[in-house]
Structures are given as C-alpha cells and as structure tokens.
Amino acid sequence: MDDVILETLEVLVVHPNPCHGSVHIRMNGSSRAGEDNSILIYNAAGLLVREYTITGNNDQITWTGDDRNGQQLPGGVYFLRSDAADPEKTYKVIFLR
What we know:
By secondary structure, the protein is mainly beta. It has one helix at 2-9, and strands at 12-15, 19-20, 23-27, 37-42, 48-54, 60-63, 76-82, 90-96. It has a single domain, classed as Immunoglobulin-like, CATH 2.60.40.
C-alpha cells in the first residue's frame, strides 16, 4: 500500500536503491505529461555528472553509473533532480560497485 502512495506523490520513482550495476529512474505520469523534462544526476560534491532528457511518452531511463563521457563513476552517493518537480526535490541514490 505504501508503494502505491509513494508513486502517486513522487515525481521520480527510483529503484532499486541502493543499486548495483544500474538503476531505473521513472518519471511519474502526473508530472508535465507531453513536455520535455530533464533528470540531472549530481555526485556528492554537487557536480553535475550526467543529464537525461525525458521526451514524449518515454518516461523511464536506466542509469548504469556512467558520466556524460561514458566513463564509469565510482560507487557512492548520488543525487537526482528533475525540472518537473515544483519545487525541485532531490532524490538520493546509493550506487554500489
């Protein structure tokens, strides 16, 4: 029951968390449907390491722990933000290596 409530309130649904190898990030359907939205991934130092654009009906991405250049990042804590959140909310992801 709690998962259903969480899914309807959150802009992003992130699973599994903590993750190993990859994490699935899904944009909740109620957030700015039909508009382009961004998912931004920051490292623990606050540096932007990866950005995804969600367009049209494509509402899910899979992040494999790489940066903008395709280089694998170290395990650790990462933070996700979406421009669809109002006000913007930060989601924490623990990426294990």
